[in-house]
């Protein structure tokens, strides 16, 4: 896919969609979320580090495949970077920039999220 705006993708959730309570994601940790199915399927994930949360479209900018092989396994063993299980590319947790691998210099597509009253919610 070529579009970098997550909102224009089929099945994208709307602003204000509540994803889950913050306490349901380990620290550090990650969790995937699916909306829709088939061609209308939207795949995203949230990573947590300390009190910070970041969300991205679940798609490697190199192969356009989902990043995880096993459910919710988005982080390296050290749990300090996002890893693509297809080619081993590494991404910063806070900005999605690829720092190692075939897509070095490219970035994951961010989705703005906030934590309000302990709930992770898609923001504007």
Describe this structure in words.
This protein is mainly beta. 0% of the residues lie in helices and 34% in strands. The protein contains no helices and ten strands. It has strands spanning 18-21, 29-35, 42-49, 52-57, 82-83, 90-91, 98-100, 110-111, 113-116, 119-122. The strands form three sheets. Strands 2-3-4-8 form a four-stranded antiparallel beta sheet, with no helix packed on it. Strand 9 (113-116) and strand 10 form a beta hairpin. The protein is globular, with a radius of gyration of 13 Å. The model has no long low-confidence stretch (mean pLDDT 94).
Helix content: under 10%
List the secondary-structure elements in sequence, H or E: EEEEEEEEEE
Shape category: globular
Using DSSP, what is the number of strands? 10
Runs in which pLDDT lies below 50 for 5 or more consecutive residues are none
Q: Pairing-aware structural class of the strands and helices?
A: mainly beta
Continuous helix count? 0
Q: If you average the pLDDT, what whole number results?
A: 94
Q: What portion of residues belong to β-strands?
A: 25-35%
Assembly category: single chain
Spatial strand sequence of the major β-sheet: 2-3-4-8
| Rg | 13 Å
Largest sheet: 4 strands, antiparallel
Distance, first to last CA: 22 Å
